[in-house]
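Quick one: co-fold with 5-amino-5-deoxy-1-O-phosphono-D-mannitol.
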Amino acid sequence: MCGIIGITSTKPVTQRIVDGLKRLEYRGYDSAGVATLESGHINTRRSAGKIANLQSVVDAHPLHGHIGIGHIRWATHGAPTENNAHPISNGKLSIVHNGIIENFAQLREQLTAKGHVFHSQTDTESIVHLITDHLDHGSSPKEALHKALNQLEGAFAIGVLFEGHDLLLGARRGSPLVIGVGEEEMFLGSDALGLAPYTDRLIYLEEGDWVILKSNSYQIYDHNAAPITRPIVHIPTDNFQIAKDGFAHFMLKEIHEQPSVIGQSLSNVLDPCSRLPSFEGLNFPQVNAFDTINIVACGTSHYAAMVAKYWLEGLAHLRVNVDMASEFRYRKPTLISNDICLFISQSGETADTLAALKHAKAHGQFCIALVNVATSSMAREADAVILTDAGVEVGVASTKAFTCQLIVLATLSLALSLQTKASSPEQVTVHVEALTHVPTLMGQLLTQTETYSQIARKWLMGAKDILYIGRGTLFPMALEGALKLKELSYIHAEGFPAGELKHGPIALIDQDLPVIVLAPHDHLFDKTLSNAFEVLARGARVILLTDTIGAKKITQINDHIIVITLIETTDLTAPLLYALPLQLLAYYTALHKGTDVDQPRNLAKSVTVE
Ligand code: M6R
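Sure, here it is.
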């Protein structure tokens, strides 16, 4: 979380820093700030809340410096107030920080004992005083930074300005930081997206690196303070276009993009001649070289992993473990060498998933990253990378990235089922054929948005709690539907395997509790339908999503049940197609409640702290 932008230039930098922060708002939006160096003095502007507030402050009280740093915050230590906003300045230096300083309490105590006075509740302020302490003892900015870095524990990326010095220092450990190389100006940023309007020439700092930037030069050092060079990579900036294209919200735009990005993601992994799944060039070990696939992810990406487990077991007959990244690393899982670990992440930056990847790699696992950002930390750390082709996803709620993950995982399962000989090429062709229809079917579903808007208004927006149930791959989809609803509308929602209801959750049922039942007409349909009737019998209101064959079997129609009739699905296409109604129900519930759809409270798009 948190986004950093820094610029050293021969021209004014403030507005470009603020514009860069707007592009990084997906990393947090609790507060924002900018500081520039003018005639050797640091001036700072900060505000609580979204970047628009900072823009107003800067418009009213402009900054004119040619060297500056900016920050967008997702609060970890200290409330999201103006006083805790970054940059944090003390008259000698100014710092922006992404990450967590784990030994901040100890540093604060030591520095307070030496006479330093703290003014915020942030962990970041301990870095400010630590570097200041070294300056006070005669160190140059470069020496002070290096000494301080050796005393900090935790994961962080920082940018630092010093009074009286025309330079900008940056450092990374655990959190990403890139240098942008411009014409007579240099940039520092959390990622390529923030710097895209300014330069396409980027240098990714490695773990422990730090850098001194001037307007026309840079010098990188490693953790031992030895000068080091890192390659310049060219990143096409047209991959980073951000616009709502006439939609009310990024989320709605991204929901509507699914037919095209799903089609693209699918064609990327199909052999153009045979039309069979092809992951050639992936350097993926042959299936007989490993025993188990461990899939690790967070949030919505974790639900994609849960869906994939059904497919990999059912189609390819492989052994599959699925873990939440935040549990995986600390659980000390038994990792057999030669096993495969698959890490799924839209951003490729999620701290827990990245840490899990590094842990698995250190334990001899072949690590594959399934990510949506080719330049992400996970893509650079992994042994092999599979890219989804969803394009930039701005809405905090993952929509198109999730369905792109699903389509790639479906084809990966088919590819592995050919390797294990669990499926014949003819059988795989039938599945692929069904998948190729998904973009068109999604397009049809998206013509019915009004239905979901009405149900959200009449049945969901006033509810205090909502349950989602499903069986098989529709169980993780129930979890996903509940996550989408709660993160956007702040209504409490839970997903359950339909068969588990009677082991406890059914006690929650009363006439005020809507239950959303995911019931495609598959081999589990009759059982799921029985569960729907069980909750109906106890007074719940049921929204049942099924297909035309399923709908014909529902005889008990009354004013406590709404049946939404979707298109017929297969085991592979059902999660993909049921994702859209779940997204739309969550979107319209939030819209009618008036919550912030693209930037829900307390959240950030990219979760770069543990
Ligand atoms: O970038 P990642 O896929 O690693 O992100 C994982 C989760 O933080 C993310 O899916 C989160 O749960 C979404 N906000 C859900 O919509």
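If it helps, The longest helix spans residues 573-593.
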